[in-house]
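Q: What would this chain look like folded?
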Amino acid sequence: MIKRTRIMYIESKAEGLNGPARIGRVTFNRTGRTLYYKGQSFHRIQGFKANYRETGTWDEYWISGPRRDGLDRLYGKSALVVEIDEDAREEYWADIRKKPALILRRTT
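A: My prediction, written as structure tokens:
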């Protein structure tokens, strides 16, 4: 079976509206209602502040496709840095942001 993977923006809402965030590669189940990231599973929920819930802790997350302009946070600007996973870095900067010169940088 071929697993669908995609680079996504993942922001924790456990600590408030602007939580820790990262860009990483997720895997989807067959229906697309559950996704997996770094050993965690997230189930789709309906909400306006969060759209996924981590199945082990019930913490809420905002998970979406990353934007080309880099303004991924659900609620405006934040001083928190968005981390980018190593396995997603090259595709994120070259294909999504269209800025291949930034591939070697460590943060957005």
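The longest helix spans residues 86-96.
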